[in-house]
Each structure stands twice: as structure tokens, then as C-alpha cells.
């Protein structure tokens, strides 16, 4: 993954780190455009915004692009147009830590950074997604064998919905049940990934931090 950089003026890495220490953040915004039989939803360049800036001009710009060019894709243009606009209204994607982890002086001079190492794997599900998950887990309200459930969208692939489950026993049974239920609720082109939250992996820790908890006990 790579981001073009939008800086207020040329900076050295030391100057950039100083600004970040004093409240500046890199924010990227999603937009949607749809040739008739396809829909794309990339991210904007990463804008360096000072402390207190909400990115309203960028939100207006990229939501306008989605509003004009996003609807026309068949059949998913409207879905991803609305999803992109809502995502921006929540503040966009903060990519500051990943940019600082990867950036070089050459990147700064070229206004583009390649993310070789990244800690951003997931983005928060929409309210409608959480509503779907809450309906699903009602059937497990008194099933204390099921300890955890988290939900998130994969950041790099917007058609992958991730569900993390932790169970004392019979994980495969819960995974199959959640998979079958969610395939009925989402469009057919959405891939459902079920993740075992008992695994000691970085992706599991990141899902806990970056996703939304639906069950926790």
C-alpha cells in the first residue's frame, strides 16, 4: 500500500516528527467512483492536518466526488458511495503512525510513501453492520461458552467483513453458524472471514483494538 502525501510546505523528517509531536496528524479520505459495471473505492492522498483541523474541506471534496461519480455502478455503486461518505464524516483514516514507521527523506522529497510495515488492518463497521451483528448474537445471550465477538471491515479489501470469535470449545461450530447467517445478510460479493480470537497473533490483537466488540465476557 502507498500514499501520496499532501504537506503544507517541504519538510525534513525531523520537522515532520516535531509537527506530529505537537498535534499534527496524517488523514486519508475514501471516495467512490463507478464506471457502469464496476465500482472502485480508493483512498485519497494523506493530508497533514494541524491540531484542531477536522479535514472539512477534504471531506467535502471527496464526498462530492462520491456523490457525482459513485452511484452509477451496477449493482454496488450506491452501497459503496454511502459507505465512503459515512466513513469520511467520522473523520477519515488516521495513517500517521504507519507513515512515520515507513517514511524516508526520499519519500518526503517525492511526496509519496510506501507502507512496508503497517499496523492498520481494520476499519470500524457501520451502524447497520453492528445492528446486524447484534441481532445475530441475541441467539447466544446465554451461551457462556462463546466468550468474545468482534467485527470490522478489512482495510485493504473493502468487500471483506471480518468477525473474530473466541469460544472455550466448538469454535468450528460457531464459525460455521456465523458464516451462514452473515452470508444471508450481506450481498453475495461480500467475503466473510472468521478469525479465531484465541490465537496469539498480531492480527488478533489489532482486531481487538481496531474493530468493534459485540460480545465480551
Please characterize this protein's 3D structure.
This protein has 217 residues and is of the alpha+beta class. Helices cover 39% and strands 22% of the residues. It is built from eight helices and ten strands. The protein has helices at 13-21, 56-69, 77-89, 96-102, 105-110, 127-137, 171-185, 202-210, and strands at residues 2-6, 25-28, 46-49, 93-94, 112-114, 122-123, 146-154, 160-167, 191-196, 212-216. The strands form two sheets. The protein has a five-stranded mixed beta sheet with strand order 4-2-3-1-5. Strands 6, 7, 8, 9 and 10 form a five-stranded mixed beta sheet that branches. 31% of the residues are buried.
Shape: globular
Query: Numbering strands along the chain, what is their spatial order in the largest sheet?
Result: 4-2-3-1-5
Percent in strands:
15-25%
Structural class: alpha+beta
Residue windows where pLDDT falls under 50 for at least 5 positions: none
DSSP E strands, number: 10
Main β sheet profile? 5 strands, mixed
Count helical runs. Answer: 8
Amino acid at each position: 500500500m502507498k500514499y501520496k502525501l499532501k504537506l503544507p510546505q517541504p519538510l525534513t523528517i525531523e520537522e515532520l516528527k516535531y509537527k506530529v509531536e505537537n498535534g499534527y496528524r496524517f488523514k486519508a479520505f475514501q471516495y467512490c467512483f463507478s464506471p457502469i459495471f464496476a465500482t472502485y473505492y480508493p483512498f485519497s492522498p494523506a493530508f497533514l492536518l494541524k491540531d484542531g483541523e477536522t479535514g472539512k474541506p477534504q471531506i467535502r471534496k471527496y464526498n462530492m466526488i462520491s456523490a457525482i461519480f459513485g452511484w452509477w455502478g451496477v449493482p454496488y455503486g450506491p452501497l459503496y458511495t454511502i459507505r465512503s461518505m459515512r466513513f469520511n464524516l467520522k473523520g477519515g483514516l488516521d495513517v500517521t503512525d504507519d507513515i512515520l514507521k515507513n517514511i524516508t527523506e526520499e519519500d518526503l522529497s517525492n511526496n509519496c510513501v510506501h507502507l512496508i510495515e503497517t499496523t492498520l488492518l481494520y476499519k470500524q463497521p457501520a451502524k447497520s453492520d453492528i445492528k446486524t451483528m447484534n441481532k445475530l448474537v441475541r441467539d447466544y445471550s446465554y451461551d457462556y461458552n462463546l466468550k468474545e465477538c468482534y467485527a470490522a471491515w478489512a482495510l485493504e479489501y473493502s468487500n471483506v467483513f471480518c468477525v473474530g470469535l473466541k469460544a472455550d470449545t466448538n469454535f468450528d461450530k460457531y464459525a460455521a453458524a456465523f458464516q451462514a447467517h452473515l452470508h444471508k445478510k450481506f450481498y453475495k460479493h461480500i467475503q466473510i472471514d472468521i478469525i479465531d480470537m484465541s490465537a496469539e497473533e498480531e492480527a488478533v490483537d489489532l482486531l481487538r483494538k481496531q474493530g468493534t466488540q459485540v460480545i465480551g465476557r
